[in-house]
Amino acid sequence: MSSAAENGDAASGKQNEEKTYKKTASSAIKGAIQLGIGYTVGNLTSKPDRDVLMQDFYVVESVFLPSEGSNLTPAHHYPDFRFKTYAPLAFRYFRELFGIKPDDYLYSICSEPLIELSNPGASGSLFFVTSDDEFIIKTVQHKEAEFLQKLLPGYYMNLNQNPRTLLPKFYGLYCMQSGGINIRIVVMNNVLPRSMRMHFTYDLKGSTYKRRASRKEREKSNPTFKDLDFLQDMHEGLYFDTETYNALMKTLQRDCRVLESFKIMDYSLLLGIHILDHSLKEKEEENPQNVPDAKRSGMQKVLYSTAMESIQGPGKPGDGIITENPDTMGGIPAKSHKGEKLLLFMGIIDILQSYRLMKKLEHSWKALVYDGDTVSVHRPSFYADRFLKFMNSRVFKKIQALKASPSKKRCNSIAALKATSQEIVSSISQEWKGEKRDLLTEGQSFSSLDEEDTSSDPDIVISTKELMKCACCCLWLDGCSLWHCGSCDFLFLSTSAPALSLPHCWSS
């Protein structure tokens, strides 16, 4: 996995057991990372800014850091090691594109000890998170590092065209060499902030074959569940307003097509769910680990680092499912099928798995034993389509507006007509009252009106009996069949001619 899937479950309960990776203690790896990145980023500031060239993606810079120190490097208490930096100018461009200044990058990684996280995946990689919660540092295999380096030109082009993406944000690729062992690391964005508690965390692939969290994983304080767990826990899915849903699905579709073009498969959507209703009850019991770092607010805001910014861009909030809680940490507002208000944090992870020969053989073998369409390993085009279908039909759903009943529609239409035509009605009613007074004072023969043929022009004929029965003003607005009763001020619609319809106060 390429993010803090455990949301800050920093190897609790094993404080005295230091992890090792390739026979190297994790403390030595953390120290080498901070020393190496501190040197290479500081050295990079002396190089002038310029456009990224194709050859910049294949440059590898190396520096030796002996424990006793040198003219260029400080002394340290770790074994001697060599630190390699891949494509330094290209990654400097990526950091600038994401709004990360060199000083902030150095401060986040080198000022405080890195926090080690446990790993629920099968890769055996080590995960570290910076103390300000900004960056994830992950150890990767040689093939993954090699694939990322080959991916950089296409990654560069995609970011320039589509900066709104849920794909991982890569900030650096490095290698520590010590005692004949190579340890490659990649620095990425942190998808799940530790300062916001994740009540549920899921790793979703759109696959159902053995996609359930293990018993060991479930025993953790913050387990990472899988597809079958999600279908069981959130069987109705997660609901968004129309604008947010469309933005999310558009981003996922674009990202999947990019991954398909790079022949990448076996990636996941890391999804963290924060339930706002639960968080209100838990505020009194918050532990210091869940309190946001005070240093974070003083640092520069990393552009496109949050889920909401990744799908809609900065400064464009959601439609308003959640309005009363401004401190959302960039989460995407949603609702559960129970009506609970949620904040979602998500990102596509594990994109460094290409459909190579071993993956093809793995899929072929599993397809013979199980249903080939349900296993996670599959050709990139099928994997992308299945992934999108699962997200669109089972995970994310759009809130449907309730259809109004016919009676409500009629009431609404009448109210709308009254609001838009009130001014016209009031002005014409005064004119009609004047004409009616003229009719009565001039002594016109009402019997002659009764004797006229009503079938010739029914829209302009009103009987004498009706005029004398009520002294109110009844109007016939040509073209919209609108009646207004001046006595009771009732506005209503009629499909009949005026002589054939009774105003409101007459019928009562």
Automatic annotation (TrEMBL):
Keywords: ATP-binding, Kinase, Nucleotide-binding, Transferase. SMART domains: PIPKc (SM00330). InterPro entries: PInositol-4-P-4/5-kinase_C_sf, PInositol-4-P-4/5-kinase_core, PInositol-4-P-5-kinase_N, PInositol-4/5-P-5/4-kinase. Residues 25-395 form the PIPK domain. It comes from the Eukaryota. It holds the Pfam family PIP5K. This is PIPK domain-containing protein. It comes from Felis catus. The lineage of its organism: Eukaryota, Metazoa, Chordata, Craniata, Vertebrata. The gene is PIP5K1B.
